[in-house]
Amino acid sequence: xxxxxxKLFTVSALAAALAACGGDDNDNNDDQTPPPAVxxxxxxxxxxxxxxxxxxxxxxxxxxxxxxxxxxxxxxxPATAAAINTASTAAGTFTPNVTFTPDMDGITPAADxxxxxxxxxxxxxxxxxxxxxxxxxxxxxEVSGTFTADATLxxxxxxxxxxxxxxxxxxxxxTANTTFDSAxxxxxxxxxxxxxxxxSLVVTRGSQINAQGTAAQPIVMSGIATTDKxxxxxxxxxLVLQGYAxxxxxxxxxxxxxxxxxxxxxxxxxGGFNNADSSGTLKYVIVTEAGLELSNGDExxxxxxxxxxxxxxxxxxxxxxxxxxxxxFFGGAVDAKHLxxxxxxxxxxxxxxxYVGNIQYALVIKYQNQDKAxxxxxxxxxxxxxxxxxxxxESNPTVANVTAIVDLSTAAYGxxxxxxxxxxxxxxxxxxxxxxxxxxxxxxxxxxxxxxxxTVAKANNNAMDSAFQNxxxxxxxxxxxxxxxxxxxxxxxxxxxxxDNLAETAIGAVTATIASAExxxxxx
Length: 524
Hints:
This protein has three helices and 30 strands. It is mainly beta and 524 residues long. The chain is globular. A hairpin with a 6-residue loop joins strand 12 and strand 13.
């Protein structure tokens, strides 16, 4: 428990005991004001998350006989090490050739669109066109509205979202008397979405998504209803999960009880004070062709995690070709494992506003950028938007086992459009273990100023080294340190040697004891 919170509980209990016993000789205490109530909030990282303690750098074990990321779309990542250049180069060498077709084995197409019972605000219409997948013809069913009760989207049709589709109405403004509808949207393994332009799926706080595909039959959320190999971009908005977990703009977790934070993409409100909250499960899910600008400057991420708690399961998820960030964590404490980011056109992993979750195993293959400078990072990290610090909670996640290979064309993008590997700014904390970054990055690690990593530095004689353990970078990767703190133990590689599983084989065995950084909510 947060020690400040424990102290407040103790003081409150003592005050109550004194009041009950008559704290002085005056028996007329009717006019005395009772001590204020202490609000209990959970702003912790997941106390039960267990990191695998690996003996290798990067996302892939060199001794592995299979590729854990093989659920992702074939051709979106290099099939062999020779297909990609891990050194700095004036011309990118990897050209994606996505040949992905969903495996519909064992799935029998339905003749018509199913009805969604118990959800009067949901409308399902059969489109004029059909889609052929894996040699089978599927009806396209356009769905719109808000799910207010449990429902299942089966794999016997192709679903097409129209506009913003909500699960629950928890994205409305919450007051002390608000009761939201809660719904669980179940999506069957092998289900394919081909969504209309401008659409998005928003799982609002208090509701959940249960989307569990398999390695052979992942759930695919893609763009407009065509069979274009699922490899375009900007064809639809993206997926948003919202929850009741803490966001540092919610205010003081010791006194506040209601939070309404406006989400991007006009997705409504999110936020609360319970980091154990659950928004459901995403497992073996591919989000591709997303990132359409919904309004001026407002592009959705592949998946936006808005105040999402660690009761949520995120495992084996690919984001491909997104116009904006691959994943972005707006506060909250959701954990994620086995992420694949391919061809994302802005930052691959982005956190801000008090995120304290855990991430292990991420494969990033970067081969296209947005046309804007000072962006396009593998990690783009802050604590509170454009402000420096948070009064209440800083972003402080723990990240382990990432392989990031950046194979860009500097001739096409220019030097100003090549981003950093780990870009830390605006007061962000964070710890990194067993990270491999190779290819076209400006800096391996960028530290904006002394507001970044201040907690770990001040606890370690102004050194940040304990926050970067076994972080290995390519030969041209540099450190840009605008802080007064020292960071001396980044490892520069003479070369990067990958096998055909994209595992680094030339680095000797390394070990690090990895534990979640913030299990008691004390990093302020």
